[in-house]
Amino acid sequence: MFAVSLLGASVLIFVACQALPGDQAAILLGTSASPESIAAKNHELGLDRPLVVRYGEWAAGMLHGDFGRSFASGDSVTSLIAPTLPVTLWLSFAALALAIVIALPLGMLAALRRRHLDGAAVSALAQAGMAVPAFWAGILLSLLFGVTLRVLPPNGYVDFRTSPVEWARHLVLPVCSLALVQSAVLIRYVRSAFVEVLGEDFYRTARAVGWRQGPAMLRHGLRNASLSLVTVIGLQLASVLVGAVVIEQVFVLPGLGALLVRYALNKDVMVIEGVVMLLVVLVLLINALTEVAYVFIDPRLRTEDER
Question: Residue 301 half-sphere exposure, CB side, CA atoms within 13 Å?
Answer without folding.
Answer: 9
